[in-house]
Design goal:
- This protein is mostly helical.
- It is built from 55 helices and 11 strands.
Length: 1209
């Protein structure tokens, strides 16, 4: 509000008001009556202000709307409810901009006018809501003296009216009133007290109302209305407490009532009570609130229920956890010192007989320890981090206390029923304290380890015990844990063996000491390898166990290499040489060793670059400077490691090279540039030598289980290095690209050649080099159009896309040069190639749309004197449309597909006349005899219907439908279903009447069928919803497409239920997708699927459930007479009635009987179309089903032949 502008001049707020009013004025022609009504009233008021020759100031609007509200209400009657609601809406809008002095001086008169809508019983919700907003602004404008005044008309009286409205049963009114109360309490007038003068009024009103409702609830527990009213009051209390306005002397009474509500069985009441508690805790965020919060905590602990109180204990524990979490945010140090008092009280509930209670106690303890000790408090004292020695000692004392409580109290017999929960609490505590848990928790670790190790006692909570040990490994380190619980794998030290620790170590070791693994764990491998070699039977159980232990020890190596603390000293030349030798000697060790080497680099690089900056404790124990030194050390030995990896890569089969290549790339990233350039030159030399040696050989597709040729191996290494080599080596890369991309008889080399461009484009320096040589690259790409192998197509398209992104405006001739290839690629069988072709077409369109000059003389096949043309989107569509004149149907079809994609992307940019011309041209192909062309044209029509403006489609609808309906009777290629889907779209867009008017007369039955099928599906869905509820249909899995265009083209929002029997293609698919098998009821006993007679209870038709009436009718069919059953024979038919005679029936039976054929096999005669067919009973002679057909209701059909794509590198 503007205190400095009492006359209502044009202040900044006035411009904001004018902006809001202008939006309302613009709705004068709105189709919505409420918006139009607002604009009309505003226009009338502004005309009145102009007639009186006043300026349109906030004061003028305020006076006009206030007098208009007074006219709408007379003698406690609302004369015009719509006008009153509209006027109140404008008052709510104008009040915040009205000068504060005016609202203070005329408070009594204004309040008298605003009070009328609030006191009328028949006032509508909209009127009351807006009036509340105006009253809120009026009360916010009052100063401290106004609030302190007493009288019949005062701000306090108005505030009480707001509080009464806060209990209104209407949700929107109640919410608006509660928000107004919250805002008023959050903005107290200037006074010595930080809280609002009206805060005690709000607290008293809320508590009184809540107490009365609670008494009513006790007498009427099943009254849902009372429950709702209690929740409404609790919402108001949450609003009040969240503003930090709840009086201190009312806290105990509030906590008492809230805890009483918490023990009710109504989960909504309990949830609302917790919300009020949460508001109370969150409101106290200032340091001055520490004493107040302490009093709240004391009140909560004074209200501690019995440990076996199943109603209140769980709720009380949840409140305690939330309270301490909020207290830690307010004053962490005070919260930490209070933990030794709080934890014993909460832990006493672990002795409860109720599982719910001691489970809640465990969760409460976990929450307290996790939230009450800030991570910052775990640091060592330092002047930089703000941790003093007093805080460090306080935390240390708390850790010692928690350890003693767990070890001496919770692990006693008294709490044995909650052993599982206590172990979970121990796990959470160790994970929270991390390295600070050492050495206090070593005793707890020893006890838990002994419980897990002693397998004779059958300890039931081994998993929880292992979780404690796992937390200790990740927090305190493996060397600390193994000093307490040694592995004893060889049995030399006596004591139990703990081989079960190996998997736990593997999953939890990180930031450990590599030297410990190298000297304490790895030597065990020699012992077990000797045992395996000494064994006579390599397949014995013992040998397999020993081999498993060896494998588990090797699986630890990568995790000890995950950011080790002693990398520079532990990973020395001797250890690296040993691992290198093992990679050549034992193929099975290549995976863990490569993984370990890769993690050495990745973990240190990530840590150096700030991956764990938020982990303050980690930063203190292992500074980032150490990680930087580790990376520098690894870069000095990266050349030797790369040499080893290159050799391993050379002798690894194609199917198992991935992990080696990943490790190579990791070390390429940190290798010094000069060393990398030298290595690259060596690899290039070996590639040239290998290619010379293989020049006379013919390239053959190699198996994935064979080692690839040397040239392929070297090319893989060059592709991997392309991203990392210095700029000085880029010339050699482009030379290799030019030399290998034209090898039409060697598709593997071609594919890798294109990947050189893709890899270089991943870096900025690589992009600059591509831009530098882009002319040569364009030339090579144009010349190799016909030489590209199909298997290298996707790699080529990816390279073209990257080149197009960097294409300068002077080289736009490249677009028409390769356009035909890209258009043809839209029909490629490879999904990735299709997706890339769509992206390339769109990128071409964007480049052409940016403008420039196309040098047509440089386009292959054009004369040198062809004039240049200007680049534009229209010109690009002209180029693409040229493919429609091709003689090859495949090219025409691909062109239509390309146009469809481009129309879908650029529909908003193209001129209307161009869109019309393209649409009319492509629609002509709907009458083409080629199915391939027609299929693409139908796809274009679907895109046209979805994307183009409605007016454009509507004006040509008759002609479009006459051409389209030609294919509505064609079943092959799903033409019929495609046409039907398009009709569905048209009906949704233009309505049934318009489509019926434009569709040919002979095809109108299809529209009628669509209407019928939709109505039938709707009825079916409604029936299913009533019978089964809203069940999720799992059979409609989410479809994925390579582009938004393909989604629009091939996706259909026609549900399965909407497909009618008229649509045979879709109906066939529907039958194939549904199972028609049912289990017949067998009385009270469930069906035993292992029983031999189980098949007799499986039916292919849905079994009928007999009603009482059905059973009665069955009884009447059989009547007894003199104790004998009498059967009705009136409706029975003679099975032989249709036969000419008994002889004919006999002959038919003989014809259908089996006879002995060759090799004594039974043969059955099957007659169809008066022809005799004989088949053996052998499975091999069963009739071959037609493609796509199914036999009866069986789901068995001829399997389609699958083509497996070649695996990429």
């Amino acid at each position: 509000m503007n205190d400095n502008n009492p006359d209502g001049g044009l202040a900044i707020d006035s411009f904001e008001l004018e902006d809001k009013l202008s939006k309302i004025r613009s709705q004068i022609n709105s189709k919505l009556e409420n918006q139009k009504h607002l604009a009309i009233i505003l226009s009338a008021v502004e005309e009145n202000i102009e007639e009186q020759k006043n300026d349109k100031t906030p004061v003028a609007y305020f006076v006009s709307f206030l007098s208009l509200l007074d006219q709408c209400i007379s003698n406690d009657q609302i004369l015009d409810s719509n006008l009153a609601a509209t006027t109140a809406y404008f008052l709510d809008l104008v009040f915040p901009f009205t000068p504060t002095p005016l609202l203070r001086s005329k408070f009594n008169q204004i309040l008298a006018k605003l009070a009328q809508p609030l006191t009328l019983e028949n006032a509508e919700a909209a009127l009351v809501r807006s009036t509340i907003g105006a009253l809120e602004s009026l009360l916010l404008a009052q100063d401290g003296s106004s609030w302190s005044s007493k009288g019949q008309v005062s701000p306090k009286r108005a505030f009480l009216a707001l509080l009464e409205t806060s209990f209104d049963p209407r949700p929107k009114v109640r919410k608006r009133a509660q928000e107004a109360v919250s805002k008023i309490l959050s903005n107290p007038p200037a006074s010595p007290s930080p809280t609002h003068v009206a805060a005690p009024l709000a607290a008293d009103a809320a508590l009184t109302q809540l107490s009365n409702l609670l008494n009513t609830y006790k007498t009427q527990k099943k009254n849902k209305e009372v429950n709702s009213q209690i929740i409404h009051v609790l919402q108001l209390i949450k609003m009040i407490t969240s503003t930090n306005s709840w009086p201190v002397n009312k806290i105990e009474e509030l906590c008492d009532i809230l805890l009483e509500i918490s023990k009710t069985s109504d989960q909504f009441l309990v949830s609302s009570a917790f919300g009020a508690f949460e508001g109370l805790f969150q409101s106290m965020t200032d340091v001055i609130d520490v004493e107040k919060f302490t009093r709240v905590l004391n009140v909560i602990f004074d209200l501690k229920p019995s440990i076996n109180d199943t109603h209140l204990a769980a709720s009380w524990l949840a409140v305690v956890a939330k309270a301490l979490e909020s207290f830690a945010l307010l004053s962490a140090e005070s919260c930490v010192t209070k933990l030794p008092t709080v934890l014993p009280i909460v832990s006493s509930y672990l002795a409860s007989e109720s599982k719910d209670i001691y489970s809640s106690a465990s969760q409460c303890l976990i929450a307290i320890v996790s939230q009450s000790i800030p991570d910052k408090f775990l640091l060592q004292p330092s002047a930089t981090n703000g941790i003093t020695s007093e805080i460090y000692e306080a935390v240390d004392d708390t850790i010692t206390y928690i350890n003693k409580m767990i070890e001496e109290i919770l692990f006693s017999i008294k709490y044995q029923n909650a052993t599982k929960e206590i172990l979970e609490f121990t796990t959470a505590t160790i994970l929270k304290l991390r390295s600070r848990a050492n050495p206090d928790f070593l005793g707890v670790l020893k006890n838990v380890g002994d419980l897990r190790t002693n397998e004779t006692d059958n300890f039931p909570y081994n998993k929880e015990a292992e979780d404690v040990i796992a937390a200790s490994i990740s927090s305190m380190g493996p060397e600390v844990v193994l000093s307490v619980l040694p592995l004893n794998l060889t049995g030399e030290n006596g004591g139990p063996g703990r081989a079960w620790l190996l998997p736990i170590l593997r999953d939890n070791v990180r930031f450990a000491e590599l030297d410990f693994y190298k000297n304490s764990i790895l030597p065990n491998i020699e012992f077990f390898n000797s045992k395996i070699e000494q064994s006579d039977n390599k397949e014995s159980i013992n040998s397999k166990i020993f081999q498993t232990i060896v494998d588990q020890i090797w699986s630890l190596l990568p995790h000890f290499c995950d950011l080790p603390k002693d990398l520079t000293s532990a990973f020395d030349e001797a250890f690296a040489t040993k691992l290198s030798d093992l990679m050549f000697a034992k193929v099975e060790l290549r995976v863990p060793i490569c993984h370990a080497w890769r993690l050495l680099v990745e973990s240190n690089v990530a840590y150096r670059d700030g991956a764990l900056d938020e982990d303050l404790l980690m930063q203190q124990e292992f500074p980032k400077e150490e990680a930087r030194k580790n990376v520098e050390y690894l870069s000095t030995i990266a050349g030797n490691i790369l040499t080893v990896l290159f050799n391993v890569f050379t002798y690894t089969v194609a199917d198992s090279r991935g992990f080696v290549l990943e490790t190579i790339e990791t070390y390429l990233n940190i290798t010094p540039k000069d060393e990398l350039a030298t290595t690259f030159d060596k690899v290039c030399g070996m590639l040239k030598q290998a290619m010379d040696e293989e020049a006379g050989q013919t390239s053959q597709q190699q198996s994935k289980t064979e080692i690839p040729s040397t040239s392929i191996t070297m090319m893989d290494l060059i592709v991997a290095m392309a991203k990392y080599v210095p700029e000085s080596s880029h010339n050699a890369l482009f030379s290799i690209f030019v030399a290998t991309v034209s090898l039409a008889k060697n598709p593997l080399m071609q594919k890798r050649a294109y990947r050189i461009i893709s890899r270089m484009a991943e870096t900025e320096t690589g992009k600059q080099s591509i831009l530098k040589f882009i002319g040569e690259i364009e030339r090579v790409l144009i010349e190799t159009i016909e030489q590209t192998h199909n298997s290298a197509r996707s790699s080529r398209l990816n390279a073209i896309l990257l080149v197009l992104e960097l294409l300068p405006s002077t080289d736009l001739y490249f677009i028409p040069s390769i356009l035909q290839e890209i258009i043809m690629a839209t029909k490629d069988v490879n999904e990735r190639s299709r997706g890339l072709s769509y992206q390339i077409l769109i990128k071409m369109g964007q480049k052409m749309n940016d403008g420039g000059v196309i040098e047509n003389s440089r386009v292959p096949g054009f004369d040198s004197d062809v004039p240049n043309s200007s680049a534009s989107l229209t010109e690009f569509f002209t180029m693409v449309s040229a493919g429609l004149a091709a003689q090859n149907p495949h090219m025409i079809s691909a062109t239509i597909t390309a146009i469809s994609c481009l129309i879908f992307e650029f529909k908003d940019v193209l001129p209307t006349d161009v869109l019309l011309e393209i649409a009319s041209t492509v629609e002509l192909f709907l009458t083409h005899n080629s199915r391939e062309i027609a299929k693409s044209a139908i796809g274009f029509v679907k895109v046209e219907v979805l994307s183009l403006p409605e007016d454009m489609v509507k004006q040509n609808l008759s002609e479009l439908l006459s051409k389209l309906m030609r294919w509505s009777h064609e079943h092959k290629g799903h033409f019929k279903s495609k046409v039907k889907h398009i009709l569905e779209r048209l009906i949704r867009k233009f309505g049934v009447e318009e489509v019926e008017r434009c569709i040919p007369e002979e095809d109108k039955k299809l529209v009628a069928n669509i209407k019928k099928s939709r109505n039938r599906a709707k009825r079916k869905q409604e029936a299913e919803a009533e019978a089964e509820g809203e069940a999720a249909s799992n059979h409609n899995s989410e479809k994925k497409f390579v582009s938004a265009y393909e989604e629009a083209l091939y996706d259909s929002d026609i549900s399965e239920d909407e497909v009618d029997i008229y649509d045979e293609d879709a109906n066939r698919q529907k039958k194939a997708g549904k199972s028609n098998q049912f289990i017949l009821e067998t009385g009270d006993e469930p069906l035993n699927l292992l029983d031999r007679q189980a098949l007799a209870h499986i039916s292919s038709s849905k079994p009928k459930k007999f009603t009482k009436q059905d059973l009665q009718n069955k009884k009447e069919e059989f009547k007894t007479k003199n104790g004998k059953l009498v059967f009705k024979e009136d409706n029975e038919e003679d099975p032989l009635a249709n036969k000419g005679s008994g002889i004919d029936a006999y002959l038919d039976a003989v014809k259908q009987a089996p006879i002995r054929g060759q090799k004594n096999k039974l043969k059955f005669k099957r007659s169809r179309n008066e022809e005799d067919n004989w088949s053996d009973d052998d499975a091999e002679s069963s009739p071959v089903l037609k493609k796509g057909k199914t036999l009866g209701k069986s789901k068995i059909s001829k399997p389609k032949q699958k083509f497996k794509a070649k695996k990429k590198l």
